[in-house]
């Protein structure tokens, strides 16, 4: 059956889970894979398992019923499942049971001193009634609790632990088809998810997301990327928050198929991503911007035994600013011979405070020739006049942070967003919630905006929006000059790409000047340290006309320790 340009025969649903039984009961979709899990096996041969729409719906109904035997609607549960199809089932089952889900990457159950800090934060803030995890994981947790006496062990001991093996497989497909009871899951206004911000530029914050906001967000994204039941998505992103989680929901709303693998599998062998696109003839894949240069350098397109063919791709969605034109052009040039069409490039913008998706510069008629501003590609194309209401119901403005008035095109300011996708706030942070989620334009009473704390600028008669960086990261120079650190970091990396690890640099203001911390590639001789420091200073001065003060070089194995303020400097 060809589903191209499929006209949905049912109205939009108020929550995502309500789409699932509709697809599952359509004859053409019952046996269609909703999710496929691909493992990178021996000899680089992928091993996969799948859930059809009918199987997923039956599993979700069964798990939700089992969960409500020991929990009540509205209870908070922390999900400590490994990435995979089970995590997908649990996430949708929590929505159908009316539970508030807090998905968390499960730390190693040894809970070594450097891997459990986020879990302590989550348990302290969310105060869940229960935790869902595999039996083997729970047994290790109990061993830890029995032999430890600290805050984490106290928090773990207070939880009701539910084994995923006990809540799965209790209902068959036929039982679901005979079940005519009314829907008791999350309503549109119910907070159904706490997703934590990435923490890339600060301590992760717990964002409260309603089921209705999430449904609106993925409906908008579906239209923006023109996804439909013939779409095939490949994703290695973490399934616990932001884009990785959104694409689970987006798959169901679109009636599509999503092929999943783990971030570790991708990092260990980036070529796997290309192989999955080829094998499943994927039409859509979301990746962070760092993926492109990483795959160019480590993808090994000419080293694997299987061929690479990217002709099926319609959307290569690039997230996480900054999105550099040079990186995109390099990737396209390398993979054009393998079928990659430049028109697939979809630079996009999103954040947890708006569920995830905000905008994309991609259009179905796009040819990939986007305008450029200071080496950056745009992440949105705004209406020709501010008075127009965007079709997607997401209003994006660039605002002067001091006056709270819209900035003129060509003037950088803070990005504000007003949308039904706006999250409800931060858990346990009422003052910050009011500041971020209830912003109002000067002299305008109606309409609340989310302050993204991202800076942007609108350029050109087509009004493309460029995400220039985080407001809190701006480095101020003498004479009022301002610069975003990623420009300095890029110039520093270009001074010695064979010596410095890509993406492992940090530029910031220190004692009135610019300081840079850079991580060495493996095996770099310490005799080169002085040359590396001089190269960084010269490169930044040449590229950005900015003098650099302190340059700190750390060995590659120290980068994690550096952020805990315990690294040993080697230069």
TrEMBL record:
Signal peptide: none
Keyword Ligase set for record: yes
GO MF term set: ligase activity
Residue stretches making up the AMP-dependent synthetase/ligase domain: 40-427
Record's protein name: Long-chain-fatty-acid--AMP ligase FadD32
InterPro entries named among the record's database cross-references: AMP-bd_C_sf, AMP-dep_synth/lig_dom, ANL_N_sf
Keyword list, A-Z: Ligase
Name of a matching Pfam family: AMP-binding
Top-level taxon of the source organism: Eukaryota
SUPFAM superfamilies per record: Acetyl-CoA synthetase-like
